[in-house]
Amino acid sequence: MVKKIAILPGDGIGREVVEGAVEILKTIGHYYRHEFDFQYGLIGGEAIDQCGTPLPDETLELCKQSDAVLLGAVGGPKWDQNPAHLRPEKGLLNIRKQLDLFANLRPIQAHPTLQDTSPFKGEHLEGVDFLIVRELTGGLYFGKPSERTNQNGEEAVVDTLFYKRKDIERILETAFELARKRRKKVTSVDKANVLESSKLWREVAEEVAYRYPDVELEHMLVDNAAMQIIHKPNQFDVIVTENMFGDILSDEAAMLSGSLGMLPSASLSANGLHLYEPVHGSAPDIAGQGLANPIAMILSAAMMLRYSFHLMEEAGAIEKAVKHVLESGKRTKDLTNHPNQYVPTKQMIEEIKEALADDFAILNIMDCYA
Ligand SMILES: NC(=O)c1ccc[n+]([C@@H]2O[C@H](COP(=O)([O-])OP(=O)(O)OC[C@H]3O[C@@H](n4cnc5c(N)ncnc54)[C@H](O)[C@@H]3O)[C@@H](O)[C@H]2O)c1
Q1: 331 labelled as ligand-binding?
Q2: Residues at site: Important for catalysis (predicted)?
């Protein structure tokens, strides 16, 4: 069956890394005999320039007609002074809301081969393999009012942290379901010693945990979680938290993987249409120079194969190919301390394609002798 994939490259390095994911998916399609139909759409700054809005209706329609969405990244200094509704990031927030992408999954794994560039050393990275489940369509980023205001003649400002009980419940259920397929531990992160929203969050977490007696639940305050991710990262299995806490903690945790350029993500909806994107932004400082690490985007495509199409073997093949390339010593610039020993984006993509071909050839030989 043909799988229709909406491709939204966006801005900056988004375009460079998305092409890498498409190349890898074509390679997978070739070896495993799947047909992927790639349809391109505009989002972010480029959409503002061409259509006057960061999320054109055609793009939204394209996504809704597709089986999955792959997104690069949006944003850049060109649009930084635009009014709020004409900021590229607004396109991102809108697509999350419009497609009801309420659960953002960010797997964090330490790669022993990248220890030389990591600020963490040796045994600290051993066994680090956890999943951050971030609520994506509520909290401070969407609550109203969010505006500059005036209080007794003095300039003031307000943002609103708003959640409905059912929104908290569904993200916690997602976390518990995922934990069931892993090491069966959920760490629910909140600020229940201060925030009313966190008190309800904690209450709901207890209720949901009651339905998953096989999964251990622990609560952790967000400030402690920020410390524990650095102090003892291998204690975690699944971390679940609200939108802004998850945004901050996952960038912090990215350093355990070696670089922001290594971190994939999946954003899941309840209706089966999911979106996949790297955690990083459009990196205007390196855009167009062939310096972008395409691995986060490529691993996001692997997540798409796993979560949207249930192609477990194919997803595993991509992850294995990435591992082989890193073990062979090939690095993009963000992954090396040696200023002249790195491969450009396109070559990294080629290396991963070649590793896929090699692994596939070995699998075939083994099949012949089986
Ligand atoms: N999901 C998204 O589209 C998203 C997320 C974050 C930021 N942004 C936008 O991106 C723009 C830049 O934001 P920022 O600089 O804070 O964050 P960023 O993630 O774009 O970059 C942070 C740093 O990491 C480096 N980096 C990021 N991805 C990399 C990769 N794949 N390979 C190598 N190096 C990489 C960059 O060069 C930069 O030094 C802003 O307009 C911001 O709003 C978009």
Answers
A1: no
A2: 141, 191
Task: Give residue 114's pLDDT.
Answer: 83
How do 238-241 and 129-135 pair as beta strands? parallel
- Over residues 208-220, mean pLDDT: 98
Query: Has 90 been annotated as catalytic?
Result: no
- What are all long-range contacts of 220-228, with beta carbons under 8 Å and residues at least 24 apart? 220/187, 220/188, 220/189, 220/190, 221/189, 221/190, 221/191, 221/192, 221/193, 222/189, 222/190, 222/191, 222/249, 223/191, 225/187, 225/189, 225/249, 226/252
* Candidate CATH numbers 2.40.30.10, 3.40.718.10, 3.30.70.580, 2.60.40.1120; the one for domain 1-105+261-370: 3.40.718.10
Is 141 designated active site? yes
Q: Is the CB of 9 under 6 A from ligand 1?
A: no
By most ligand atoms within 8 Å of CB, the mutation choice from 71, 244, 277, 282 for ligand 1 is 282
Distance 282 CA to ligand 1 centre (A): 5
pLDDT at 91 > cutoff 80: yes
Consult the annotation and say whether 286 binds a ligand: yes
* Pocket of ligand 1 contains residue 75 by CB under 6 Å: yes
pLDDT digits (tens, 9 = 90+) for 242-271: 999 999 999 899 889 888 899 999 999 999
Cα separation, 317 vs 332, in Å, equals: 21
Please check if 247 is assigned to a binding site.
yes
12 CA to centre of ligand 1 in angstroms? 9
Instruction: Pick the more confident residue, 42 or 366.
Output: 42
Domain 119-257 maps to which CATH number in 3.40.50.261, 3.30.300.30, 3.40.718.10, 3.40.720.10? 3.40.718.10
pLDDT at 89 over 90: yes
Whether pLDDT at 322 is above 80: yes
- How much is the mean pLDDT over the chain? 94
Q: What is the CA radius of gyration of the chain?
A: 21
Catalytic residue among 251, 320, 323, 359: 251
Residue 15 known to bind ligand: no
